[in-house]
Amino acid sequence: MIGRPKLVLASGSPRRLALLNQGGIEPDSLLPAEIDELPMKGELPRALATRLARAKAEAALQAVRLDEELRGSFIVAADTVVAVGRRIMPKAEMLDEAAACLRLLSGRNHRVYGAVCLVTPKESFRQRLVETRVRFKRLSKEELEAYLASGEWRGKAGGYAIQGLAGAFIVKIVGSYTSVVGLPLQETIALLSGEGYPVHFGWLSAV
After folding, report:
1. DSSP string across 44-99
2. Which of 77, 93, 96, 90 is nearest to 157 (CA)?
3. Which class for 125: exposed (0-12), middle (13-18), buried (19 or more C-beta within 10 A)?
4. 79-134 pLDDT, tens digit each
5. Do residues 103 and 141 make contact, with C-beta atoms less than 8 angstroms apart?
6. Which residues are designated catalytic?
């Protein structure tokens, strides 16, 4: 697209891409960052989300600097952390891991921390952190087994995807729905707009 600066999304997540698209923004490139996402000893959930979003942005910036076509792009990176109190939930990869997460979330409140980090063409960093409270219904054995059988939990923080089947488990949400999905959209758009990115450029052809 001619007439706007380039934008890189430092993620391979189809959910984050879909959310940016929902906001009328189409990234010029996707640059997933391979970083160690394990929490540091004693690291709190909100600090972890903020640190990982920044690390992903820095990794993408290194790649952008080496790419003549992308040099000087805006970069958007994000991370999502699910926590019960100070306990950070893993991104479930194994069935027993997902089952343990869901049993812990069943019938109680938890928090989702969505961090976004923007790198400007002048390589300034801007960050936002969004905290959302989510309450799960108490899951029956049948519901738990059916959800685990679906496989939807794989690779998801806390072992669930709110935009999928697990949406049926949500009693209440206080905060940002898009942040729980994977990218706090309003905050991301505000960061981009505040740094001069033409966020409404794609709206002209959206209808």
Report:
1. -HHHHHHHHHHHHHHHHHHHHHT-TTTTT-EEEEEEEEEEETTEEPPB--SHHHHH
2. 90
3. middle
4. 999 999 999 999 999 999 999 999 999 999 999 999 999 999 999 999 999 999 99
5. no
6. 79
Give me the half-sphere count of Cα atoms (radius 13 Å) on the Cβ side of residue 176.
22
- Which domains, from first to last, does the chain contain? 7-205 (3.90.950.10)
Give the C-alpha separation, 81 to 108, whole Å.
17
Element (H, E) at 21: helix 14-22
Nearest Cα residue to 98 out of 43, 149, 133: 149
192 in Cβ contact with 74 (< 8 Å): yes
What the block records as the tokens of 24 is 């009328």
Q: Tell me how far apart the alpha carbons of residues 204 and 105 are, in angstroms, rounded to a whole number.
A: 42
**Helices (H) and strands (E) in the chain — how many of each?**
6, 7
